[in-house]
Amino acid sequence: MHPGSDKTAEKAADATIDSLAWIHVRDRRLLSVRTTGKTKFYLPGGKRELGEGDVAGLCREIREELGVELDPLSFRFFAALEEQADGFADGRLVRMTCYTAGHRGEPVPSREIAEAAWLTSAEAAACPPAGRRVLRMLAEAGLVD
Asked: What CATH number is associated with residue 66?
């Protein structure tokens, strides 16, 4: 092992983006959102705030992005995955923990969301690597077209 390798590994781990995502399928399509100024569609959700748990963080993010109230008692773990983060030239990773959950209200994009779309696996190229992987998982399970 060469000097500094532990620090390099630690620095890379610190650079990983820790995010939460809501998996919501309707009519065999996955709800995805495009943030203002971005070209790719992402799974609804985002980063948790300091000390915030998965349920509280995802409920807050979905309320802010889509005006929907997730039912905290209905959360079901879907997957945890790590993929190349979109928009970072340094090879940064995103660690995304995904949940399904019941909700109240119809998803309506907020100011930070330019567009919401219901995607099939054939439209996976519109998503960054993590979104493509989730679409593939859903298609393999027979949940999306």
From this structure: 3.90.79.10
